[in-house]
Write a structure and sequence with these properties.
With 379 residues, this protein is α+β, with helices and mostly antiparallel strands. The protein is built from eleven helices and five strands, in the order αααααααααβαββαββ. It catalyses: ATP + protein L-histidine = ADP + protein N-phospho-L-histidine.
Amino acid sequence: MVTFRRSLWQEPRPADAPPIGRPDWLLVGVFAAAALVEGIVRPDLAWRPLAVVLALALLPALLWRRSRPLIAALTGWGVAALLAGLQLTTHTGDLGLYSMLVVLILLYSLVRWGSGQEMVLGTAFVTVVVALGMYAAAAGWADVFGSSVLLLLLIALAAVFRYRADLWQRQQREIRNQERVALARELHDTVAHHVSAIAVQAQAGGVVAAIQPEKAAEILAAIEAEASRTLAEMRSMVRVLRTEETVTYAPQRGVADLPALARTDTTPTVEVALDGSLTRLARPVDTALYRLAQESLTNAVRHARSATRVGIDVRRDGDAVRLRVSDDGQTEPGPIPEPGFGLLGMAERAQLLGGSLSAGPGPDGGWVVEAVLPVQAPA
């Protein structure tokens, strides 16, 4: 209970309060017209000019109800307290206009748009004013009960809308966070692979140019093509972020595109083996297998010491698909290093699809990455 009171007291104002707009001016106009008309058609109302003037004093409060909810509530309910005090001291009849029920909107706005401190102070003031009004009007228990239920329902309604909006904003922030993580994973997997391929080809070009100058042009053409693919994929990701534009999405690569990763003219050589029925995989699984193989190959090319071969093996095993990427490089003795962003992103891909991923030194040396994914992605 203490924690709840403390959290309520420290509750900040909602950050999405809309500015004053046309509906607010319409509300002010309707209330002003209603107060003037009521002042004219109710000649039996005691202290009629004063009641109308005090009612019109609420006009600014209706415009402040979201930007300054406590001041608006104190103003509106302060007028109600003044009328109740006059009625109690002068022993006259009802001094309030029916249109003064607009103060209920100010109570709603206090709970919907106020901070925790403003809600506590404002509702305490409203409680005192309501009690004074009930006493001045000599209300019976039925009236007291009905008025209390009405106010509590109004407060509950405002709280529901307030915390429903807060929940929606949190969900939107969570979605944006997930999108940022997915984008970071895509950027890392895609760009890192292409840049690594460019670096390997450039290193090979430096060696080949000295021995076989006629092949330098071929290597430069391969580097140019790889750089063009990298730029094209980067531009497609940037277009996805520009929500005001209509984006034509390129089809995601999958298992059928893995043979394109095979290389026999570079070191290390890359061999791709596909086994079993791999044509009816769920689209997310198909794409994830390609990305996992691509990132594993990138890591092998960049980090495997003295590797001459990298093998990519994909096979169907019942309701699961197994991916194994291994190299014959030399592993350094000592503890296994902490995983970087690449391995973390790969593990996230597998876990999101209900699968698993492991990476570490192989039994015969080198580095082995193994992933097991279900054939059909979970809903």
